[in-house]
Structures are given as C-alpha cells and as structure tokens.
Amino acid sequence: MTKTIAPADLDLSAYIRPGDAIIWGQLTAEPFTLTEAINTQCSELGGIRAFVGLSTREILAPECAEHIDFTFSGGAVTNHRFARDGALNTLPVHLSRVPMHIEAGDIPCDVALIQAAPDDGSGTLNLALSTDYMGAAIAKARTVIAEINTRLPHTNGDTAIPLERIDAVVPSDRALAIFKPPVIGDAERAIGAHIARLVPDRATIQMGIGAIPDAALEALAGKRDIGVHTGLLTEKIVDLIDAGALTNRYKEIDEGICVAAILYGTERLYRWAHHNEKLALRSAASTNSPATLANFGRLFAINSAVEVDLTGQINGEVAASRPVGQVGGQIDYGRAALLSPGGRGIIALRSTARKGSVSTIVPSLSAGIVTTARTDADTIVTEYGIAELAGVPVAIRARRLIAIAHPDFRDSLAKAAERVC
C-alpha cells in the first residue's frame, strides 16, 4: 500500500538500505524535496551508491561524497563542483544506452526517486517533464518514492506510472526547474544563419541546449514543415510552431508529433505541453535509438562541443582540464544523421573561448578526450562559416577547419597543420 509522508516527516532510512543503489530524475525531472532529504540524511544511510544525471541546482553538497559513492553521467551544469574533491566519477555512455544499462544491472538501481504530477483520475501518476531513463529505473527498483508536485503538467507518451508501483508519496507544491533562454550574441546569430543554410524544408531536427542551438532554431523560422525528434526540447520549439515552420507533417514516423525525452524551459513551455496531443515524451532508449533514428530520411543533428582538432576529432566533455559536458546524445544523433540519406551531423561552436583568448579549432585536443571520433565527423560550423569533413582526407579537413577558425589563430593553426596532418 502506498504511504503518504509529509516532507518534514520523511525518513529515508525506512526505505533505503545500507549499500543500496539510487537513481533519481535529472534536470527538470529532479525531485528537489527528495534530493534535499538525501543531502541532509546521507550520513545516516549507511554507505549508499547513486547514479546522477544533470542537476540545475546545487542541492547536493560535495561533502555528500564522504557517504555516497557517486557515478555521474558527466560534468555539465552543476556536477563539476564534485571534481574539486575528486568525487566526479563519470560514466562515459551514450544516452540511448543508459536505460539498457539500468535494465542489465550495469547501472544498479534498488531505489528510484521520481517527480510526478498527481493522479488525474486514471489511477496513474505522470512523469510530466521527462521520461529519459526513469522508466527503466522504476521497473528495476525494489522501492519507488514519488514527490508529487501539484504544479506539474500532464504530458503524453511513456509518462504514466501505475499508483500501485509507488511505495511512498511525498506531496509538494514547489517551483519547477526553469531554464531561461540564454542571451544570443552576434557570433551565435551568425552560426545560426549558417546552420539554416544547411537545413532544408521537411527536415527532422535534433538539437542540444544553449545559445547556439537556440540561435539555430530562431534562424529556422523561415523554413516549412520542419519536424522534431530530440532528446531535449526547449521553448524555441514553441516559437517555431507559432511561426508555422514546425509542423511534423512529413516525419517518416510520429507524423504530426514532437518527440522528446526531456522538456526544459519556462512555464510557457510546460503550459504548452499540458495534455498536448502533438507532444510525446519517450524513453531515451527510443528518442536516441539508432534503430528509431534510421527511419528519418532528412535527419539534422545540431549539437555543440568544446573544441575540434584539425583532423575532425571532437571533444564535448572537458575544457581546461575541467569537466563541463557529457557524451549525452551527440554520437547517437551524429551517427544517425550520417546514415540519413539527406541528413547532416552538425557540430556548432564559437571560434574562440575564454573571452577570445583560445581557439576552439585546435591542433590536438587539449584534454585528450575524444567524444566523437574523426570517423564520425560530418559538418563543423563556427561564426566564420561551414567546414564539411565527411569523406574528406585529413589534410583537406585541416584547411577547411582553419578557414572557419578565428582569424587571430589561423597562422598558428596552419603551421601546426604541417606537423599533425
């Protein structure tokens, strides 16, 4: 029987055993009341383990690592704080495979902590803002604790969780995780315009998060009958729908429907999503699945990176020896776009970083981290143009990449190319 517990009365030791492995939702799916309880009670829980995706808030103190054996999906957003204490133990993994690893027990899960919308009379809770890998975690867990937030929308897709699967309910009425649109500067707008030149009408797009993907989506407003099948869906998608550019009309599967694993935006996005039949949230095993993505004839994957070397190797995880990203869906979608007859795998980034002091086009990757191999490199875009790399030998790749590097670094890159290419 499901037990209802007030937040102030929640004693996690009644549900979490010493040595247990815990998984909770990431980004907008994080159950803040429950992770706050993890933070305050971690010393009493007897040496537990936790798989942590991305968090928008600094709820967990790095000191929790004294009591919790953490595995992180990467160092993006607030996770990098754990690197200072050597506790950022990352798992390099394609997002499409996380549900599979949970099902197989490679990523263990004894207790799942979820955020859900209340039962609307159907006898189910609703995962609301993200399905991601939590469906696999719920199926695998011995115990499921749900924070029921009355502010959440009800969404369609793989979002319904039977009430009988829930062991404890913690009611809440707290503000949702909000992603305010980033500031788009001149460089981002130039990058967005280049990307819009590549994307044809009736293409199906996937995009990441940040100023560059947002600029690209803005630039697509003049297109027609764009479709979307993505891991993370932001508010710019609603703008494209309002502009008449995004209809999903010509998608080979899920015609007329936006498909995503995570919603990440403001209240406007969440209101749009509420009971919207033109949206389906699905597991990352589906949204990022090569078998699913193979159906699209014009798949355009739009992602970003930290740096690209002169042979086309891409680092999307580490900057200046600091973890700032993760593998995520970059390779899932990039490879699928390469296989799509009319598709493109686009990596878009500013030509410089650290206030213009370093080039993001580099002779070799500074951290030695290769997120996307040069064999999977397709199209690189900076504010200075487009470098097409697929099917091109390294010497020509280097020349094309130097041409879209910042002018201040082109001479030094050309000299370096003599050594590395």
What does this entry show, briefly?
With 421 residues, this protein is α/β, with parallel strands linked by helices.
Overview of this protein structure:
The chain is 24% helix and 21% strand. With 421 residues, it is an alpha/beta fold. The protein has two domains: 3-172, Glutaconate Coenzyme A-transferase; 186-420, Glutaconate Coenzyme A-transferase (3-Layer(aba) Sandwich). The protein has a seven-stranded parallel sheet, with helices on both faces. It has a six-stranded mixed sheet with strand order 11-10-16-21-25-26, with helices on both faces. A three-stranded mixed sheet has the order 18-17-24, covered by helices on one side. Strand 2 (21-24), helix 1 (32-41) and strand 3 (48-52) form a beta-alpha-beta unit. Helix 4 packs across helix 5 (211-219) and helix 11 (394-403) packs antiparallel against helix 12. The chain starts with a strand and ends with a helix.
